[in-house]
Amino acid sequence: MPTTASTAHSPTAERVGGTPIADVTASDSTLRRFLHGLPGVDAVGLEARAASLGTRSIKTTAKAYAIDLAISMVDLTTLEGADTPGKVRALGAKAVHPDPTDRTTPTTAAVCVYPDMVAVAKEAVAGSGVKVASVATAFPAGRAALDVKLADVRDAVAAGADEIDMVIDRGAFLAGKYLKVYDEIVAVKQACGGSARLKVIFETGELSTYDNIRRASWLGMLAGADFIKTSTGKVAVNATPANTLLMLEAVRDFRAQTGVQVGVKPAGGIRTSKDAIKFLVLVNETAGEDWLDNHWFRFGASSLLNDLLMQRQKLATGRYSGPDYVTVD
């Protein structure tokens, strides 16, 4: 009998906490038992720790390093109905040379676009090492049949996408249909064909509780996510220090139990260098130095890069150049 998604082992890990993942995901009841058996989240303690870590003081040399690191972690993003090939080409040029006046500026990690713009973006960043990420699976709502979602993924991969940012079915998750969500992630992972890394977006602002964010994090990782991502950037509540801290704890604990490392991508609402550095402190203090690399941590952002560039120029010259000295996306 053919193996179904729900009975297949995760593509990246075989056991969790000594239990075969195939057993954990064998049915809705076994998966629910596992997810609801995770420790409950102390909301007050989580928010207090996130706030405390956000007060850490970063000195000049460390700040310069942190700004360059943050630039190298940006997924420079345009996800608008008015996107044109010209806008995407300009975005790609900015990703490759964020500050044309200073070629020591790191490239960004990736550009993130809709599937129909992947080929344009791929050409724009050719030879640079900048990745092309594509949202898929009926982004941002995820309200489509599975075959439509998978066609979306395959189109993006065929066009050359290095990474796929998928959205989970939040309605199914909130209704407790965890196996349906798991199966969809596994199917999307398979549609990536081994050539594209998979980021799984939870839309944490719609999950209502920290316990749900923890459960979604583990569900995504069990299904083979290469990254877990907070948000689409299309709702009122996106990445926050608290929900990102919670997801960092999840990837740390998942690696401890499985030996598999998974990345984290906060997206939406991170606009300043000060904000970005706070998130880097969260990474270092929670998951550890192994995640302080753009292979394992990303910022989903559009306006953040400009502020990072202005702060970088100020550190280098002692003068604050202002927004007129950086390109407008």
Explain this structure.
With about 325 residues, the chain is α/β, with parallel strands linked by helices. Helices cover about 45% and strands about 10% of the residues. The protein has helices at about 20-25, 30-35, 45-55, 60-70, 85-95, 120-125, 145-160, 170-175, 180-190, 210-220, 240-260, 275-285, 305-315, and strands at about 15, 20, 75, 110-115, 130-135, 165, 195-200, 225-230, 265, 300. The strands form two sheets. It has an eight-stranded parallel sheet. Helix 3 (about 45-55) crosses helix 11 (about 240-260), helix 4 packs across helix 12 (about 275-285) and helix 11 (about 240-260) runs parallel beside helix 12 (about 275-285). The termini are far apart. Mean pLDDT is about 90; it is low at about 1-10.
Features:
329 residues, 11% strand, 13 helices, disordered N terminus, alpha/beta
Give the overall average pLDDT: 92
- Give the tally of β-strands: 10
Query: What is the oligomeric state here?
Result: single chain
Q: What fraction strand? A: 5-15%
Spans of at least 5 consecutive residues whose pLDDT stays below 50 are 1-11
State the helical fraction: 40-55%
Which H/E pattern describes the elements? EEHHHHEHEHEHEHHEHEHEHEH
Backbone structural class: alpha/beta
Largest sheet: spatial strand order: 9-8-7-6-5-4-3-10
Rounded to the nearest angstrom, the radius of gyration is 19 Å
Number of helices: 13
**What would the principal axes of the Cα set say about the shape?**
globular
